[in-house]
Amino acid sequence: MLIESLEKKTRLAMVTVMLALGASTVICAACFYFCMSLVREQQNQVYVLDGTIPFMAERSKNEMTFNIEAKAHIQLFHQYFFDLSPDDEYLKWTFSKAMYLADESALRQKQAIEETGFYSQLLSSSAVETIICDSIKLNEEEMSFTYYGTQMIKRRTNSIRRSITTVGRLQNVPRTQNNPHGLMITNWRTLENKDLKSY
Predict the structure, then answer these.
(1) In the chain, pLDDT over 90 holds for what percent of residues?
(2) How many CB atoms lie under 10 A from the CB of residue 60?
(3) Which of 168, 95, 160 is nearest to 130 (CA)?
(4) Is 103 helix (H, G, I), strand (E, B) or coil?
(5) How many whole angstroms separate alpha carbon 172 and alpha carbon 185?
(6) Cβ(190)–Cβ(106) below 8 Å
(7) What is the pLDDT of residue 64?
C-alpha cells in the first residue's frame, strides 16, 4: 500500500514536472517570437530630429515605392535627353547625365538625331527645346513603360509643339550618385514624334 502510494506520488510529480517544462518551453518560444517581431518592427522605423524634437518616420519597402521611383527615373531621363538649349557645353552635360540612366539604345538614338543635323540647327537658330510629361504607362510585371510627352521648340521666328511617344524597359542596377533610382532604361526607342501646331 505504501509502495503504491509512493509510485502514484512519483508519477504525479513527474507529470507535474513535464507539464511545467512544456509550459515553460511554450512561453519561452512565444516570448522569443514576439521579441523578434518587435525588433523587426523597430528596424523599419527611423527617427528624425528637428532641433531637439524627435519625429518617427517609417521606412518604406522597395516594392511600395517602385512605381514612384520608376516614373521619376523615366521622367528625369526624358528631361535630360529632350530639354535642350543652344549651348554646346550644356548639351554635352545633359546628354552625359542622360547616358547614366539608359543603355546604348539611347546613345544610338542620339547618334541618329545628330546625323540628321538637328543639334547643329538647334545651335545655329538659338532654339530652346523643352519637354512636358503628359503621362507614363508602367507595366511593373514586365518592367516596361510607355512615355507620352509634349515637346515645345522655340526659335526666334516661330515655335512648334510636338507630341512624342517612347517605349522601353527597366532593369534594376546598383544606386549611384549619377543614378539615384537604381534603374536602367533599356531597349528605348521613339514610336512617334510628330508636329501638332506651329506658332
Answers:
(1) 28
(2) 10
(3) 160
(4) coil
(5) 9
(6) no
(7) 60
What's the pLDDT at 40?
Answer: 80
Which are the contacts of 45, defined by CB distance < 8 A and separation ≥ 6? 56, 57, 58, 59
Residue with cell 530630429: 49
Helices 104-115 and 88-99: crossing angle, nearest 10°?
A: 150
C-alpha span between 166 and 75 (Å, rounded)? 11
Angstrom distance (rounded) from CA 84 to CA 72: 19
CA-based R_g, the chain, Å: 32
Confidence at 76, pLDDT banded by 50, 70, 90:
very high
Nearest-angstrom CA–CA distance, 28 and 157: 81
Q: What is the mean pLDDT of residues 103-132?
A: 85
> What average pLDDT does this structure show over 11-36?
85
Per-residue cell: 13: 510529480
**For helices 62-82 and 104-115, what crossing angle results, to 10°?**
20
pLDDT confidence band for 53 (50 / 70 / 90): low
